[in-house]
Design a protein that fits this description.
The protein is of the alpha+beta class. It is built from nine helices and twelve strands. The protein folds into three domains: 92 residues, Butyryl-Coa Dehydrogenase, subunit A, domain 1; 108 residues, Beta Barrel (Butyryl-CoA Dehydrogenase, subunit A, domain 2); 149 residues, Up-down Bundle (Butyryl-CoA Dehydrogenase, subunit A, domain 3), CATH 1.20.140. It has a four-stranded mixed β-sheet. Strands 4-5-9-8 form a four-stranded antiparallel β-sheet, with no helix packed on it.
Amino acid sequence: MEYPLSEEHRMFRETMQRFVDEEMIPFELETCEGGQLKPEWRDKFHSRAKDLGIWKMEVPEEYGGVGADLMSLVIVWEQLGRTIAVPTRGLGGIMGPQVRAPLYELSEPMKEKYLYPVLDGKKTACFAQSEPDAGGDPGSMRTAAVRDGDKYIINGTKRWMTGAEEADFAQLLAVTDKDRGSRGGISLFLVDMDSPGVKITAKYNTMMGDQPCEIHFDNVEIPIEHRVGEEGEGFGLGQRFLAHGRLKHGARGVGTAQRCLDMMCTYAKQRETFGQRLSDRQAIQWLITDTHVETQAARLMVYNAADMASRGQLDRTDGFIQKMYADELGFRAADRCMQVHGGIGLTTDLPIEQFWRQARSFRITEGPTEIMKWVIARNILRNYD
């Protein structure tokens, strides 16, 4: 059961698969430390990314990037999802600087200040949306930006900001019209992290190994030029970034499920208990069958979503479906793989426990499963009015 990829995409997938199999997986337990790539491995992977043509894949050609289509990006994300050789969040930057879509919407003077330095690797940004009381519900956002002449004054707190400590600026979503909420009441701003009143107030140690931060904004003044787009357009601009991220979630989930399936099958054919291989036991066979079938289904969903999105025809519901299904599958597959391996699966001698921890987190980030299901159900029921 195979999605009808073009010959070019099939060849590219084979190249990426060989790269992961031969240059990442054999070394994956030694490449990272403290949730980051070790310098020597970062340099090696960056160099290989340029050789493979995946450096700056997400950057449009007019800005010096590859300008790759979504299917090619999904192929890369899926293959990198099969290994823990690179940090799951950010992928160790092996595809180059991470540029979120709103930065391309800036005026030329603002591009000179923010976009081009990010493209050159001289600046980094964090994305600030979630709050202590507004995670998956942006309409409950409290951080406010109040217009005062030719500037805005920002007050509030953001939480779970990955990369905030190293970031030079934040892409901040803040309320500009409380009554309109997420329907035209949220705007997007660029806030320098060294601005007076910006303070990192907490850093959280997560089970995934990363350390997202909490940022407090206390009467932070920014010029009106630091607003991206028109007032009230921020939620839509942010969703463009998140829609892209949901495809990444789906592809990584497929990659993780495939790797866990491969490990389950290999181990089940090697391991004997009570004079019989695990692969001969029906209980194990059913785990393998379920994982195989679900991985096939998830891959078809993700590839189809990428194809539709590249043509501007992706239904928002389908985008949510592939994210929800693949995220849930990634965790189920890792959990089954751990169960098949028994005690050795709990150790850090194998990548299973890290797949398990990362996959568990994806069921929450960039849209929890429960919210995905709620939105999907709401959109389905509209067809029965």
